[in-house]
Amino acid sequence: MVDFQPFPHQLQAIMAPVRRVALIGGYGSGKSSGGAWRLLRLASLNPWTPAYGATRPKGAIVGPTWRILKQATLTALDAAMPRNWVRKRRGPPHNDIWLANGVVLEAHSALSDIEGQNYSFLWCDEISHPNFNERILGTLVARVRDPRARFLGEVFTGLPVSGWVRDFLDHPPEPRTANYGGRWTIMCKTSDNTELAEESKAAIAEAVPAADIKTLMGGEWASPIGAIYQEFEAREHPLGNLTENAGYLDRPIDLLGLDIGESGAVCFVQKITLEAKNVIGQKQNVEGLLFVDQMVTKARSVDEVCYEIKTSKPWKIVPGITRICVDPTTRRDERNAIKAHFPGCKIIQRERDEPTYHVEERIRTTRAALKDALGNRRVLFSRGTMTGVKHGILDALERARRNERGRRIKDDLRDHAEDAASYAICEGLPLKITSSAPERSGKFRAMRRR
Hints:
Blueprint: H1 8-15, E1 20-25, H2 31-45, E2 58-63, H3 66-80, E3 86-90, E4 96-99, E5 104-109, E6 121-124, H4 134-143, E7 153-158, H5 164-169, E8 183-188, H6 198-207, H7 213-216, E9 255-259, E10 263-277, E11 283-298, H8 302-312, E12 323-325, H9 332-341, E13 346-348, H10 359-370, E14 379-381, H11 383-386, H12 393-399, H13 415-428, E15 433-434, E16 448-449
């Protein structure tokens, strides 16, 4: 810190007069260094006072893993901290740094148990790492509540990955008021680091996948790395207008997707006509789907959900028109309950081993409906009823991801909503495929696309 020359975006983060500051950017943009300097300023603003008595003001430094915390986060802090600030360091099990002004900096991983702690400030590094989630974030923010602190502060640094991170941080700046601490999210690019050699920038650009270069270097919000539905963006996807203003309430529901479980979901879908381009650029009318409403059910039976649909939803479930798409594992008694509530409605229940209903095939069908190779979108969502629902369909589509091995990451809170939507899409907009007759073993042969 002898040659203290921060970049403009780092200086903004250091001097921001608000409680919550986020420095989000690409590789090598200096976000971790900026976060360390912001943390040190918060430490200087919250020294020990007689009000603390025998206790000390504390700040938390949280990384996704201990390895990242030691090799990256604490390294950036050591590079920024003057040596005369440190009074002593303690290793395991304490893992803290005692400063000369009486402040104690505690180091934690994302999985540390910090319930009951009172902190004056917090720095959460690599917030977009999979080890962090909304529950952990809520626990961390709730710890920043020391009533004796002069200036409560939160610092977040990481990559600009869409999902819950963007929902939490992507907001316009808000000033500090008497009842609100204010917030400021600062976006930065790799090119903002003027000390990074052009050779290094070129090497990073060559190594980063082309699909992720805007996120990992450009500092722009984008789908999470490994996102399954990269064609979908909840904030940019063209959503339909409020269905109430277009008279859709008078139309029957064509498809009803049900996936009931511990965190179940229901979707209400109507067929619509959309304009799309063909391979030679001509426009033509095609069939599409409009998701007009949804329900997120929590630990309720099929009978309870069907009763709520009939009594609390304005949509028309018409016998002979509405088709109800259910999970392949739906039991006979659950199907009987659906029939009792909606007599005359056809129940669509397919087997998991059907080639057109396998998990990966359902993902392909859903992705093609969201956006095909020509850029056509054949699935729209009602803005008034589909957005802003936690663990809903849009939330599930945006956050579905694969791990490094290409396997789908399970998420019990959102998987049911994703499945309910895919059942309706596979029934309403199936992919055109051909297959040979089943073999004697009862299994299907490989499918061939047209």
